[in-house]
Amino acid sequence: FGSRAGDGSKRGVWYSPRARAGAHARACRGRSTMAGVQEASAPSLSKLRKVIKEAFSYFDKIGNNTVQQDEVGTIMRYLGQFPSESDLKDIIIPELLDEDPSRDGLVTFEAFEKVMLRDLMDRVYDPDDSETLLAAFRVLDPEGKGYIDSNLMHEHLSTRGGKAADGFREREMSEFLEYAKDKESADSSKIYYEDYVAKLTADIEKHLEHLYQDARGSGGGPRGGM
To answer: Distances in Å between the alpha carbon of 96 and those of 90, 168, 219, 221, 224?
Structure first.
């Protein structure tokens, strides 16, 4: 919801196998969930590369080991890293293009894998834990009501932290609000953020546990569904 509490760049996520990392996928970001997945046991480098390759291949539409620049953020979020749009534009995309400038603005798998492995190992853009997310939401709820009006949330996320580049696109906003609103309440204009954070962090953990189970070398046991 903000990369620091209250500054509006935090990143969360709701996934499907094709990375429905849209609005709420970019709502919150931080340090603990991915760390827990990584620390359960050290991932095999070869298996980690396989996970990255499979994620990349979802968006390699013509099978030539390249993707469009605007797909990079979605792939990174699917893999558990949540850079801001300004970081993507100003830091990550230029670095990826510098790795192979001959591809006419397309991002190659070789360049992406190098950056992704580094960011995963260094936990550069890990998702936030629930307490950090709640602290960020409470900045918008100074009266402690336990909810935030969806119109206020819309306004805040449109120009998150004063950076228009990090604001949600309209489709992302719609997806976020649909996910975040209380479906059981007669008043759908309120976002009860404690319920939202609980659902969000559970979905992140379930997805990353499923995604990285093989990379950690844990053989048997049930796998979470998507």
So the answer is: 11, 23, 33, 37, 32
Terminal alpha carbon distance of the chain: 23
Rounded-to-integer distance, Cα 119 and Cα 80, Å: 10
Q: Which of 143, 22, 37, 134 is nearest to 77 (CA)?
A: 22
Ranges assigned E (strand) in the chain: 66-67, 107-108, 148-149, 190-191
- What's the gap between Cα 5 and its chain centre? 17
DSSP 133-176: HHHHHHHT-TT--S-EEHHHHHHHHHTGGG-GGGSPPHHHHHHH
Residues 6+ apart with CB under 8 A from 186: none
pLDDT tens-digit profile, the chain (226 residues):
433 233 333 333 333 333 333 334 444 444 444 454 444 445 578 888 999 999 999 999 989 999 999 999 999 999 999 998 889 999 999 999 987 777 778 999 999 999 999 999 899 999 888 899 899 899 999 999 999 998 888 888 876 655 555 667 777 788 888 888 877 776 778 899 999 999 999 998 899 888 888 666 544 333 333 3
